[in-house]
Amino acid sequence: MNIAVLMKQVPVSNDVSVDPETHALIRSSSEGMINPADLNAIEAALQLKEQTDGKAVVFTMGPQGTQKALIEAMGIGCDESVLITDRCFAGGDTIATAKVLARGIKKYGEFDLILSGALSADGATGQVGAMVAEYMDAPYVGEIQGIKYDETDAEHVVAIKKYQDQEYHIKTELTAVMSVCFGSNEPRFATLRSMRKAKTKPLHVYTNEELQMAAEDIGLSGSPTIVTDSFEPENERRAEMFTGTPQEMAAKLKELIDNEKGKE
Amino acid sequence: MGKKRIGIIGGGISGTCLGYHLSLYDNAEVVVFEKDTIGGASTAKSAGTVCLFDDSLKNRYWDVRLYGFESYLKMEAEEKGSAGFDKTGTLVVATDKKVEATIKTGIALAKAAGYSGEYITDKGRIKEILPDIATDNILGAGYTQEDGYFDGTMISNTYAKKMQKNGGAIKTGVKVTDVKVVDNKATGLTTSEGEDYEFDVIVDCTGPWSKFTGEMVGMDIPIWHTKAEAFFLCPPGKKLDYTFPVLKYPAFYGLRAGDNIFICKSHLSMDLNNPMHAGQWDPDKLPATGGTDDYFIDFLLDQLEMRVPGIVDSGLVSSWLSYRAEPKDFLPILGKTPVEGYMLATGYGGNGVIEAPAASRDLAKLIMRDEMTPLLEDWEFNRLLK
């Protein structure tokens, strides 16, 4: 089974700023990492790949620096990666991003399954996976916990969803798009050896020269979303440092716990 | 006798340790200014290894090592956990005759101070201590069970607490924005809160930031940054069934970090002329995690394949990049500068946790008694002007 994984690089910390005019998140000031839920999507893809002897190709849209995250994804086990990068794609909302990703996937070739993380750690819209399904005219199952594959029925997979302590098994034909929940599996780590090997794996770069997207479909002009306001949440958490002997500090801690209990 | 007012810029291991040693003098009035949190910057990224014998500090400075080690042991004895001591022991591997001689001298010095240590040539015994090690191409290893690593952040906070108990003051979340210099004498400073302070002595304890701190008094502090690139590895079996000791090779070192293993390139293997290793950068732009160079993966893979093959297929849990601050001779800069009343306790490189107690003890003596010591003479600023 050939699987595409949509990956996003997100800031390591919450230390991102907001552009006062466009209300967009300014991410350039922070080191990037693979979006945590996308690691679960990668793990789900690798498990299926190993089960079915296929390949996993990771896609991302972003600036050139995102290559590092793609190499890490290949270090974790993905076979190839595709960086979709062009200044004209910048500023795109989820619709414009999904259109570009869908075009990039089609440009690469045929896939049986397309996986994404259910939510990104920064924007957290959860929209891109579903929109990619729409633009690829493929069925979509969102926020899944796992995927079952039966080799006697290679045309379908079963997505496992959980809702209010119930487990739902949803059978869908392939090609399908699914978003994978954060924490639904235990992502494997890259190793030093696999990271070295990753540097030799194919990393394709698509610009708009390859994708031939119309200007009205991409970037700011292809983004109907209007952000009317954005703000940085006020941090109301306050730390209190205990001082004194261990016994005194333990007594203060107990008092604090007792007080909090009383509030329930 | 009037009080001597001392302002310390920087609340890492250097600033808090100096603040504590100064607070032991009745006539010292100490204020430490920290722009963020105590021991939260480069100190927090220190491995905190204070080993009885390894190559991190020349045997010539044995008493510096011993004073640091015993200071932290006492701290830990006074209040368990206050120095974050993890007594894993240390295995220092001899890869050639020169390293072997250094280890043997270190063992002799440790024994003279009443600690245990042995030089092991029985490869089977070395593998009993560290089953994942390769014993080909090594001569032997020095081993002691009595040391390990400490937690620089815990130590800094403990020193800060002890200093406050002695009457010292700490201003956290407060950045020093200006140092006042009148007739080539530092007289006070201004903070980000807009407050002015007058001091008799101001000490720069800002480590990787010293180049910028020095600019406030018009000095070019000859500090270089070397990269401390570290990985946290999850062993192949996810949990080791033995105590991973502090492991020292000339090119890298490792220690346990919970169930993971922390691995870092040693600072003495850094080449100040290699732009991949060293430069002058802005520590404020360092990411909290990540930021390591690709070359480091190749370096570490080669080293572990050859030296500790049992952990080479560990998972890469996380990584970080820190800047060590050091002058070209890799020794700290302590004491007076051409600007009267402006002193330095910086440039510890990777050895701040080891060296700060002895250096602070001696620097406090200079500040309060105007007495020099052999250590201050060795590490004085003037040597770098020659």
Oligomer: heterodimer
**Lateral strand order in the biggest sheet of chain A:** 9-13-8-1-6-7-14
Q: How many helices of chain B in DSSP terms?
A: 9
Termini Cα gap of chain B: 37 Å
CATH superfamily of chain A: HUPs
Write down the secondary-structure element order of chain A. Answer: EEEEEHEHEHEHEEEEEHEHH
CATH class of the largest domain in chain B: Alpha Beta
Helix content of chain A: 25-40%
How would you name the CATH homologous superfamily of the largest domain in chain B?
A: FAD/NAD(P)-binding domain
Termini separation of chain A comes to 51 Å
Dominant shape of chain B: globular
What's the story with the biggest beta sheet of chain B?
A: 9 strands, mixed
Give the structural class of chain A.
alpha/beta
Strand fraction band of chain A?
A: 15-25%
- Strand runs of chain B, count: 20
Q: Please work out how many helical segments of chain A DSSP would assign.
A: 7
Low-confidence stretches of chain B: none
* CATH uppermost class of chain A: Alpha Beta
What is Rg of chain B?
Answer: 21 Å
Protein name (chain A): Electron transfer flavoprotein small subunit
GO molecular function (chain A): electron transfer activity
Domain Electron transfer flavoprotein alpha/beta-subunit N-terminal (chain A): 22-215
Pfam family, one (chain A): ETF
Characterise this structure:
The complex is a heterodimer of chains A (264) and B (386). By secondary structure, chain A is of the alpha/beta class. Chain A has one domain: HUPs (Rossmann fold), CATH 3.40.50.620. Chain A is 30% helix and 25% strand. Chain A is built from seven helices and 14 strands. Chain A has helices at residues 36-52, 67-76, 94-108, 128-136, 192-198, 208-211, 246-262; strands at 2-6, 9-11, 17-18, 25-26, 32-34, 55-61, 80-84, 113-117, 140-144, 146-148, 156-163, 166-173, 176-180, 203-206. Chain A has a seven-stranded parallel β-sheet, with helices on both faces. Chain A is globular. By secondary structure, chain B is an alpha+beta fold. Chain B folds into two domains: 4-44 and 152-223 and 329-385, FAD/NAD(P)-binding domain; 86-147 and 225-325, D-Amino Acid Oxidase, subunit A, domain 2 (D-Amino Acid Oxidase, Chain A, domain 2), CATH 3.30.9.10. Chain B is 28% helix and 27% strand. Chain B is built from nine helices and 20 strands. In chain B, strands 4, 5, 6, 13, 14, 15, 16, 17 and 18 form a nine-stranded mixed β-sheet that branches. Chain B has a six-stranded mixed β-sheet with strand order 8-2-1-12-20-19. A three-stranded antiparallel β-sheet of chain B has the order 9-10-11, with no helix packed on it. In chain B, helix 1 runs parallel beside helix 5 (152-165), helix 1 (13-23) runs parallel beside helix 8 (352-369) and helix 2 (62-78) crosses helix 8 (352-369). The longest helix of chain B is centred in the last third of the chain and has 18 residues, at 352-369. Chain B is globular and about 65 Å long. The model of chain B has no long low-confidence stretch (mean pLDDT 94). The A-B interface holds A 12-13, 30-33, 75, 188-193, 195-196, 199, 243, 246 and B 79-80, 161, 231, 234, 287-291, 294, 297-298, 300-301, 304, 312-317.
